[in-house]
C-alpha cells in the first residue's frame, strides 16, 4: 500500500473544534446560540442512528439541537406546517429534513418549502441555482467535506482533471460544481458512460458516489491520483455480521493512488462536521455577522 490515507475522522474533529470556537465567541460576544432543527419522518433504523449522532455532535460544539420525530404516516400538510414553524423560529438557524422521505411525501416540494437561508443541506432549488452560478449559497455537506479534504491535501486544485462518478443531486452534481469552481476540468460519469474505466484512468481526482459496493477497482486508478470515496455500503461480512465498504475497492485502489479516503472514517464524519459548519454560517448570515473563514466553499 502506497497511498497517503486522508483521515476524514481526524479532519472532521478539527473542523468541529473550529466551529465550537466560533460558537463560543458568538455566545459570549453576541449572546447568540446557533440552533439546528433535524426532522425525521418514520423509523428507518439507519436514519435514527445517524440523526442521534448528529444531535450529539450539535450539542458538543455548543449549539442547540431540536429534534422532530414524526410518524411514518405524517401527512404532507403536517410536515409543511412544521417547516413553516421552523422557518419563522428565530432560534432555528438550520433545518435538515432527513432523506429519503416516506413515499407518500413529495421530497422536492418539502425541501423547497425550507427557507433557503436555513437550508443547511443546500438542497433547495435556490441554493442549487446560486451554487451553479458561483454565487454565495448553502453548499451540500458531503461535497463540501470532500472539497475541504481535497484543498487541504493539494493546496490548489487548478487545472486538475477530476472525474465524479455519480450524478445525484445530493453529491455528484454539486461536487462537480465545486470542482469546477476550483478550476478543475470536470467529467461527470454515470451508469451510461461509455468506457468508464478509461474515463476514470484520466483523472487526477476521482470522486466515487454511486452507492455500489467496491465497484471501482485499483486498475481504473491513475498512479498517484487522489481517490475520494463517498460510498457507505453495508455488506455481508460472512459470519452473520456486516461491515461498511465504500464504492472503491480499498486495498487495490490504495496500492496505486497517491491519496485515498477510507470507509468508514473518511467522507462520512466530514459530512456531519460540514452540517455544523453550515449551521454556523447560516447563523452568522442571519445576524449580519462576518462569516467564519475556511468553513465555506
Ligand atoms: N437531508 C439529509 N442530509 C444528509 O446529509 C443525509 C440524509 N438526509 N440522509 C442520510 C444520509 C446519510 N448520511 C451520513 C452521514 C455521515 C455518516 C457517517 O459519519 N458514517 C461513518 C460510519 C457510521 C457507521 O459506522 O455506521 C463513517 O463513514 O465513518 C453516514 C451517513 C447523511 N445523510
TrEMBL record:
Domain Tetrahydrofolate dehydrogenase/cyclohydrolase catalytic residues, every copy = 6-121
Where on the tree of life does the source sit, at the highest rank? Bacteria
Q: Does the keyword Glycoprotein apply?
A: no
- Mind listing the UniProt keywords for this protein, alphabetically? Amino-acid biosynthesis, Histidine biosynthesis, Hydrolase, Methionine biosynthesis, Multifunctional enzyme, NADP, One-carbon metabolism, Oxidoreductase, Purine biosynthesis
Could you tell me which residue ranges the Tetrahydrofolate dehydrogenase/cyclohydrolase NAD(P)-binding domain spans?
140-285
Q: PANTHER family, alphabetically?
A: C-1-TETRAHYDROFOLATE SYNTHASE, CYTOPLASMIC, C-1-TETRAHYDROFOLATE SYNTHASE, CYTOPLASMIC-RELATED
What HAMAP family does the database record attribute to this sequence? THF_DHG_CYH
**What protein am I looking at?**
Bifunctional protein FolD
Q: Which organism is it from?
A: Maliponia aquimaris
Source taxonomy lineage? Bacteria, Pseudomonadati, Pseudomonadota, Alphaproteobacteria, Rhodobacterales
Amino acid at each position: 500500500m502506497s497511498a497517503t490515507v486522508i483521515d476524514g475522522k481526524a479532519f472532521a474533529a478539527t473542523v468541529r473544534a473550529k466551529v465550537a470556537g466560533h460558537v463560543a465567541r458568538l455566545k459570549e460576544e453576541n449572546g447568540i446560540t446557533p440552533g439546528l432543527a433535524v426532522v425525521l419522518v418514520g423509523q428507518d433504523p439507519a436514519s435514527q442512528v445517524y440523526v442521534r449522532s448528529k444531535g450529539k455532535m450539535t450539542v458538543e460544539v455548543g449549539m442547540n439541537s431540536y429534534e422532530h420525530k414524526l410518524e411514518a404516516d405524517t401527512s404532507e400538510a403536517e410536515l409543511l406546517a412544521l417547516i413553516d414553524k421552523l422557518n419563522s423560529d428565530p432560534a432555528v438557524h438550520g433545518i435538515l429534513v432527513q432523506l429519503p422521505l416516506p413515499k407518500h411525501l413529495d421530497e422536492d416540494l418539502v425541501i423547497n418549502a425550507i427557507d433557503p437561508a436555513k437550508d443547511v443541506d443546500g438542497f433547495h432549488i435556490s441554493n442549487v441555482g446560486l451554487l451553479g452560478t458561483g454565487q454565495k449559497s448553502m453548499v451540500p455537506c458531503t461535497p463540501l467535506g470532500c472539497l475541504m479534504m481535497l484543498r487541504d491535501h493539494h493546496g490548489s486544485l487548478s487545472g486538475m482533471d477530476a472525474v465524479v462518478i455519480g450524478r445525484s443531486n445530493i453529491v455528484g452534481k454539486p461536487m462537480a460544481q465545486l470542482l469546477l469552481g476550483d478550476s478543475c476540468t470536470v467529467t461527470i460519469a454515470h451508469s451510461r458512460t461509455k468506457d468508464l474505466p478509461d474515463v476514470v484512468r484520466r483523472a487526477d481526482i476521482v470522486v466515487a458516489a454511486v452507492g455500489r459496493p467496491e465497484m471501482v477497482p485499483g486498475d481504473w486508478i491513475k498512479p498517484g491520483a487522489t481517490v475520494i470515496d463517498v460510498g457507505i455500503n453495508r455488506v455481508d461480512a460472512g459470519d452473520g455480521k456486516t461491515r461498511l465498504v465504500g464504492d472503491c475497492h480499498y486495498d487495490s485502489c490504495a496500492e496505486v493512488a497517491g491519496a485515498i479516503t477510507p470507509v468508514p472514517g473518511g467522507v462520512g464524519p466530514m459530512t456531519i462536521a460540514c452540517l455544523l459548519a453550515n449551521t454556523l454560517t447560516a447563523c452568522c448570515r442571519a445576524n449580519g455577522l462576518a462569516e467564519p473563514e475556511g468553513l465555506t466553499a
